[in-house]
Amino acid sequence: MDTHIVIMAGGVGSRLYPLSTPERPKQFLDLLDCGKTLIRLTYERFLEVDPQAHFWVVTSEKYIHFVKELIPEIPDEQILAEPAARNTAPCISYACRKIAKKYPSAHIVVTPSDAFVPDKKAFAKTIKAALHFTEQKESIVCLGIHPTFPSCEYGYIQEIPGNIFQEEGEFIRKVDSFKEKPHTELAQSYLEQGGYWWNAGIFVWSVAFIEKQLRRYAPQIEELMDLIEPALYERNEQEMLEEYFPTCEKISIDYAIMEKSPDIYMAPCEWKWSDLGSFEAIEKVKAER
Description:
Structural class: alpha/beta
Order of helices and strands: EHEHEHEHEEEHEHHHHEH
Helix content: 25-40%
Radius of gyration: 18 Å
Strand content: 15-25%
Shape: globular
Largest sheet: 5 strands, mixed, barrel
Number of helices: 10
């Protein structure tokens, strides 16, 4: 399988200010005092999935130097500079369009750069199963984290009971709907009902299928990518990107695709995960290490 890992690293980590700042946000910090930054840990975690995978990073122009410094293994042409912050749908569309031009048979994992997963082998097993599923079936697979408390900081994925597929020893479930970050009482009811999972923000698909989905549900973004595409890998790529990318609709992939498509599945994850989105979360992970 032609595997590509797209690491999204453009956020500013505002919830961790003043530790995380717009000048050096949390993905470029060693928040766990382990000698490695979060983006480096993310890169090494995906090497466990496929050491031969192609790695891509999408980030702000002002953070390119951090990526080159922290992950020198990634070729310069696979570090993509967004000229403006337009949320995750345009970011993902650009990365996938660039991959598609050179690797039309690619299977892609899109991931945040700032989460923590201590069990790399269990993580790799889940991702491999998701990749295999999308190879067999036109679909999008997201990762669901078993909720341990009624959090109002995460979006929730609701599964369809009984729609379970076995893949590479893992279970893939059909998704009923995505739920936005709820208030505490609603989050508590999700836990009591069961069948709800935290959205980890990790997505798996084939490059051909995600383009179909984007054309159907986010046509404005795809029309702009059509204008940028002839310049991909050419000397005027950044110039064309700076002209058209800032005019993309500012929308998350969750709103643009995940809430609309009927072809969404979920790989439920029982391994430990944290988005390290608060000082309390960081201290908890440190205490458990």
